[in-house]
Amino acid sequence: xxxxxxxxxxxxxxxxxxxxxDTVALENDRIRVVVLPGKGAEILxxxxxxxxxxxxxxxxxxxxxxxQGLSSSTAGGSQGVWMDHYVGGWQVxxxxxxxxxxxxxxELSFHGEASLAPWESSLVETTKxxxxxxxxxxxxxxxxxxxxxxxxxxxxxxxxxxxxxxTGNERMPYMWGxxxxxxxxxxxxxxxxxxxxxxxxxxxxxxxxxxxIAPNARGTWPHAIAADGGTVDVSVIPGPGAGYANMGYAxxxxxxxxxxxxxxxxxxxxxxxxxxxxxxxxxxxxxxxxQGYPWYGRSYVIGVEPHSSWPGHGLLxxxxxxxxxWLEPGSSETVDFTFTLFELPAKGxxxxxxxxxAGTVEFD
Length: 364
Known about the structure:
This protein is mostly beta strands. The chain is built from two helices and 29 strands.
């Protein structure tokens, strides 16, 4: 697969291709992360290597990644284009998220230009090992995004720093989020999602009959207000075939982290980020309940997505809600992420209570 490899200590960075797309793979003996620079710097997969048989914790759509030369969409709108190219994994959503909208004369596409734009990439050597630098200058708004990614030399931890810069001469609003989606076999019945939140807000667009959550209703996390007036614990994951889909927002967080534990595989994932920049988590639950394009009732997936803003209906909606962020001309904003794979404690010995900024997972 690789055309070049950099190896320092126990971490490695290799370049290669998949279906005609250039790839960058960052790995050590316990974790492998594959990135597609030409497709929004998307993280295509994150594999746990500790058991000897690689396990991808990210969702892989039932349709395949199209070869790069055959990637043109036949859809007329930006949402259709985005969905035609979506194959799971982890995307950055910027400067728009959710519905397309027009701002300052430019149409901002569904889930943002950065998520599909081709990024430049280069392999670099650091004192902590090999890494990859990625960057893109957007066309529809005056922003530059850069990202530095590496894996720990020995621990199953991915770290990356992402920076946005306003390259224009006008104060600019933005939505900025990360869209990791998790799937089977890692996602399973009885999986448990922990977020240090106090509030769960059901999305206004939750469709009656295909969701268990009342639209635009506030509950106390992890209990959402149910469509029938009761409550639903959205932190406990049902099995495949549950037949419903929910969308909502974990709000009023005390810290920027979450953990998702998978009893079927014996591992969990933990993500950290700066709460000051991304104070909400979008929780998208697609449990074989989505009907019609593109799901057709065949997708079992959960997205647990740190975001700067809510609701997920485009930049104009975030401005109206007062949750959009703003950046002055020439100014920058930076977020540091960690992604950690961890082993679950022996059965009955507790659940995650905290994840430190360094990615250390703590249990009760």
